[in-house]
Amino acid sequence: MPPKISISDFMGYLKGKSILMLYDRHPELQSKWDKAFWARGYYVETIGNITDEAVQKYIKEQAEDSRKEDSRGAAL
Question: Are the C-beta atoms of residues 56 and 25 closer than 8 Å to each other?
Fold first, then answer.
């Protein structure tokens, strides 16, 4: 990522572009997810201050939280 681009601008671009590509390949998903496909936030950490294990732990915890939210929504 070029240093002139802010992290928030890059994340906005990444989320926006990737969802357009996904909807282009799978238009049926657009009616299901509409504009709520990505979570509002994002996690950023510099490479020098974090281990691979910490990143993997964070991702695993996020996946577990998502599954919990999905199961709560299914119960409603």
Answer: no
- List, for residues 27-48, the tens digit of each pLDDT value: 888 887 766 778 788 887 776 7
Nearest CA-CA partner of 5 in 44, 52, 41, 33:
44
> Catalytic residue among 13, 42, 43, 58, which?
58
**Cβ proximity of 7 and 44 under 8 Å:** yes
The pLDDT of residue 73 is: 62
In the chain, where are the structural domains located?
Answer: 1-39, 45-76
Rounded Cα–Cα distance for residues 71 and 61 (Å): 15
Contact 25, 16 (CB under 8 A): no
Is 23 among the catalytic positions?
A: no
Residues in the chain: 76
Higher-scoring residue by pLDDT: 48, 76:
48
Q: Model-level pTM?
A: 0.52
